[in-house]
Design brief:
The complex is a heterodimer of chains A (305) and B (253). Chain A has 305 residues and is α/β, with parallel strands linked by helices. Chain A has 12 helices and 13 strands. In chain A, the strands form 3 sheets. Chain A has a 6-stranded mixed sheet with strand order 5-6-7-3-8-9, sandwiched between helices. A 4-stranded antiparallel sheet of chain A has the order 11-12-10-13. In chain A, strands 2-1-4 form a 3-stranded antiparallel sheet, with helices on one face. In chain A, strand 11 and strand 12 (251-255) form a beta hairpin. The radius of gyration of chain A is 23 Å and the shape is elongated. Chain B is mainly alpha-helical. Chain B has one domain. Helix content of chain B is 74%, strand content 0%. Chain B has helices at 3-18, 23-45, 57-63, 68-87, 91-97, 101-137, 147-172, 175-197, 206-214, 226-245. The two termini of chain B are 29 Å apart. The interface between A and B is medium-sized, with 35 and 29 residues.
């Protein structure tokens, strides 16, 4: 059963459609990357999922129930939304104690989660003096308070330094390995590509693609085959339903294909293959190809010209 | 999880919120300091330039006119407690822990009401102690007959205006907006417009109810303690009801 189910979700703000008929699932034991450029509708979707905003239509449920109907929601779902949600005059420990009290979570969890996120030494300091990275860790600590089976994290890597990013990636993998469903939003695929199992890509509120990251990576694969008869090999690959063309002289390129598909098609047709190599397209480029449907200039130079 | 348990958790969390920032204790301390200064100044000028002397009831009532401080302070505290949730975006973790918004703000109203009553009692008690000390210094050992009513009035008005403050904060979702709205209501709408349009309506209005509870009988107010108390609670409930039907259910940014 899916931990998180978004079904035909739409959210309109007047004439603006922030989320448009969006559907996807996130499963226990996996990290799902919820990806899209800024303004794609990611945060709006997460707010609806967490009961902080109302959908125009469709549903967003956790374990089959909307957030406000979950018994003891903080024990089932840990959420960390992007931005500052702390009173600057309170310490981290006080902030967490207030949440724990309201949610009926034992007070002993406060030092435990502060230890997990590495804030024990700063627990008594006022949050107003925290760095962005420390606030991200405190956000995660609040999400972990109830030891929930589902985590919803909005841009948790934003503003982190390289050490912080590595720490957060390891933490997310660990949480998923414990069997939790982890939904992580980000506007940069590269940022989360080492962490996520599945991805959901949105643009302008609409679903662009979803599935295992490995599948998306495969979709960007380019197979280069060196052969004695490139023209014939192209014909064979086209006949096999692959996109292929002669790159130069004796090399044929097949897009979105596997080495097995090219090798087997060539062997069946009796075309000699001298060399077969796979070249993965940069994931980030693929992500931009999928999402960049706006009329933004491609380069800063273009914007300034 | 029973509703009672949930309400008890929320009550403890809301109480904890009040006393984990420096602002609230500072506001309470400043209010008590203001009361003490007011008592000392009133005692010093008593009997001078037409003010009644300390050996008259009217003179002592001037000193006992201290309930006005905690009730105004609690109006601000109530606004800060509710509007501050939106200002600092702590409303997000608050609603994640307890998604039922009406319940959260109803508990907030209750907690501020109880805090207001306690603060009214403590601050008036401290002020009363200062008054007794001033009178003793002048070899006077008698308090006027309405002292008990003024004490009770300070407690009730502090609780009532605190609850109205929370309701205003919930309605406006903005601390500055709520404070401006409260001042505009008190000075402009209640005292100038409504009283001009409907003479005699003032005794049914919240500011007048608070004044009735905290001012000395010499001011000539006619309402009992009960009516203004019910009025303040009614206004708090009505504003919160409007908020629950309007702004309280809006999307959280």
């Amino acid at each position: 059963m899916s931990a998180i189910t978004i079904s035909r979700l739409t959210k309109r703000y007047g004439p603006v459609v922030a989320v448009d008929d969006l559907s996807f699932d996130a499963h226990p034991g996996t990290v799902t990357g919820f990806l899209g450029p800024n303004g794609a509708g990611k945060t709006t979707t997460l707010r609806i999922l967490l009961g902080l905003a109302a959908p125009t239509s469709g549903t967003a449920t956790i374990g089959g129930l909307p957030y406000h109907k979950l018994p003891d929601p903080a024990r089932q779902v840990g959420a960390a939304l992007d931005g500052n949600v702390f009173h600057p005059g309170r310490s981290a420990a006080q902030h967490l104690r207030i949440i724990a009290t309201a949610a009926g979570i034992p007070a002993r969890r406060v030092p435990e989660v502060l230890g997990i996120v590495g804030l024990t030494d700063a627990a008594g300091r006022r949050v107003g003096g925290y760095s962005l990275g420390m606030r991200q860790r405190l956000n995660l600590a609040a999400a972990l308070l109830g030891d929930p089976g589902t985590l919803v994290l909005d841009e948790p890597l934003n503003g982190l330094d390289p050490d912080g990013i590595r720490w957060m990636r390891t933490m997310l993998r660990t949480l998923a390995a414990e069997g939790r469903a982890v939904l992580v939003s980000s506007h940069l695929l590269n940022e989360v590509s080492q962490t996520v199992d599945d991805i959901v890509v949105v643009s302008r509120g609409r679903l662009v693609t979803q599935g295992p990251l490995a599948e998306l990576a495969g979709r960007g694969a380019l197979i280069r085959a060196r052969t004695t008869d490139p023209a014939r090999l192209v014909d064979v690959l086209l006949a096999a339903g692959l996109r292929a063309s002669i790159a130069d002289g004796a090399t044929v390129e097949a897009m979105a294909a596997t080495a097995d598909e090219v090798g087997l098609a060539a062997a069946a047709a009796g075309v000699p293959i001298l060399e077969l190599t796979r070249h993965d397209e940069d994931l980030e480029s693929l992500f931009f190809d999928l999402t960049d449907k706006t009329d933004k200039p491609d380069t800063p130079q273009e914007a300034l010209s | 999880m029973t509703t009672t348990v949930s309400l008890w958790r929320l009550t403890r969390a809301e109480t904890r919120k009040l006393f984990t920032t420096r602002a609230m204790p500072a506001i309470f301390a400043a209010a008590i300091a203001l009361i003490l200064v007011a008592v000392v100044v009133q005692a010093a000028v008593a009997g001078q330039q037409g003010t009644p002397p300390l050996d008259t009831d009217a003179g002592v009532y001037k000193l006992l006119n201290i309930g006005v401080v905690p009730c105004r302070v609690m109006l601000i505290v109530g606004i800060l407690a509710a509007g501050g949730e939106y200002r600092h975006r702590t409303i997000v973790p608050t609603l994640l822990a307890s998604p039922r918004r009406g319940r959260v703000f109803a508990v907030k109203v209750l907690v501020i009401g109880v805090t207001g009553a306690a603060f009214g009692a403590i601050s008036f008690g401290i002020g009363l102690g200062a008054v007794v000390a001033e009178l003793s210094a002048h070899h006077l050992h008698r308090l006027p007959p309405a002292t008990g009513s003024l004490y009770a009035g300070a407690i009730i008005a502090s609780a009532g205006l605190g609850m109205i403050g929370v309701a205003l904060g919930a309605l406006t979702r903005n601390t500055v907006g709520a404070i401006v709205a409260a001042i505009a209501w008190t000075i402009l709408i209640e005292q100038i417009i409504l009283q001009a349009i409907v003479p005699g309506i003032e005794k049914w209005l919240p500011t007048h109810a608070a004044v009735t509870l905290t001012a000395s009988p010499a001011a000539g107010h006619t309402l009992s303690l009960t009516t203004p108390s019910l009025l303040l609670a009614g206004y708090a409930a009505a504003i919160l009801l409007v908020a629950s039907r309007t702004t309280l259910n809006r999307d959280i940014a």
